[in-house]
Amino acid sequence: MSRYWSPLVSQLQPYVPGEQPKMNRLVKLNTNENPYGPSPRVLEAIRAQLDDRLRLYPDPESDELRSVIARYYDVVPEQVFVGNGSDEVLAHIFQGLLKQEQPILFPDITYSFYPVYCGLYGVESRVVPLTDEFALDPEDYLVPNGGIIFPNPNAPTGRALTRAEVERIVAGNPDSVVVVDEAYVDFGAESAVTLVDRYPNLLVCQTLSKARSLAGLRVGLAIGHADLIEGLTRVKNSFNSYPMDRLAQAGAIAAFEDEDWFNETRHKVIAERERVSAELASMDFEVLPSSANFVFARHREWGGSEIAARLREQGIIVRHFDRPRIADFLRITIGTAADNDELLQALRTLAD
Ligand SMILES: *Cc1c(COP(=O)(O)O)cnc(C)c1O
User: Fold this and answer.
1) Which CATH architecture has domain 40-257?
2) In sequence order, what E strands does the chain have?
3) DSSP string, 81-125
4) Choosing a second label site near 73 at 20 to 30 A (CA), which of 111, 206, 310, 320?
5) In the prediction, which pLDDT does 1 show?
6) How far is C-alpha 263 from the geometric centre of its chain's CA atoms?
7) Which residues line the pocket of ligand 1, CB cutoff 6 A?
8) Pocket test residue of 87, 92, 116, 181 for ligand 1, highest count of atoms within 8 A of CB
């Protein structure tokens, strides 16, 4: 606390990111990074940018990248917004679209950055409890609100809605913006991008950090009606005109051009997720059905923080949230087959 801080800063409760430990030889299954690196074509494209042009500012509107994304999703570039990670895109969404008279809605168990942005931008919110099975019920969102945001698949539960269920929420709230945060959609959920031409209140947010293995490059995007995108662009150009540096723009373009790498690596993650889920279930874990690159599981006897601490002693880091309803759960990122074997072996020895 400092007397020089603004009143707002004194009251902020910032997001606490998963640890990035400095130790070597760790099995790091705590922040949902992709265990298979980015496409070699991405690295090549970034290397090709490393010259004297770095003295120049990048394209402020990332036109080429936005065109590539538009072609990929069969929309027009005016329907695409890009930012420095989807966290930055989400920040602009909270400030530019979700700060309204009425409170916005999001699930009680969800991405913990949402309440942080509410605090930063003074957005009123009301949490909507997930069902007893930790599922999101679309009917719960058909009530007056100033906007709606949820991840699909949800984090940290991993559970997904079908596209028809998402559409029920969007169609039932024509006067509110509905933001679907699809950070994990490529690991097995149905994207709502195909609905954006029919619903001017729908905004779909995605990231290159997870399925495209580029968390270190910081690229996120949003797709929706051109009017929503223009609103976000107004916020962006009142904040930072150049959020996407030259390397990020070039690398992201190459990522969308290597569909084979994308498909191969995400299918490996999906296959490992199914194997890990089955193994955990055989060890007395209750595992929620996951459509993401992580599983959310609780043991029928042992507590969550206890298991996390025991795994840590063996150099395996998983995420534990000390929060109501989910304190007994662990969120375990799917790693390589070797990482996952180490995790499963360590859990077997805990039982001895
Ligand atoms: C990882 C994640 C993000 C943030 O992604 P970045 O693009 O790396 O900022 C956004 N939403 C959810 C639900 C996530 O899990």
Assistant:
1) 3-Layer(aba) Sandwich (3.40)
2) 27-29, 80-83, 104-107, 125-128, 148-151, 178-181, 202-207, 220-224, 285-287, 294-299, 316-318, 329-333
3) EEESSHHHHHHHHIIIII--SSPEEEESSS-THHHHHHHHHT--E
4) 111
5) 83
6) 19
7) 85-87, 111, 151, 155, 181, 183, 207, 209, 215, 220
8) 87
Please identify which residue in the block is written with the tokens 């993401």.
Answer: 292
CA of 86 to the centre of ligand 1 (A): 6
Q: Which two tokens stand for residue 250?
A: 């070039």
Q: Are strands 178-181 and 202-207 parallel, antiparallel or unpaired?
A: parallel
Separation of CA 209 and ligand 1 centre (Å): 7
Nearest CA to ligand 1 atom 11: 183
Q: Is the pLDDT of residue 48 over 80?
A: yes
17-37+260-351 domain in CATH 3.40.47.10?
no
Mean pLDDT of the chain: 96
Amino acid at 253: I
Per domain, the residue ranges of the chain are: 17-37+260-351, 40-257
Task: Give the three-state DSSP class for 132.
Answer: coil
Site to probe by mutation for ligand 1, drawn from 111, 149, 184, 204 as the one with most ligand atoms within 8 Å of Cβ, is 111
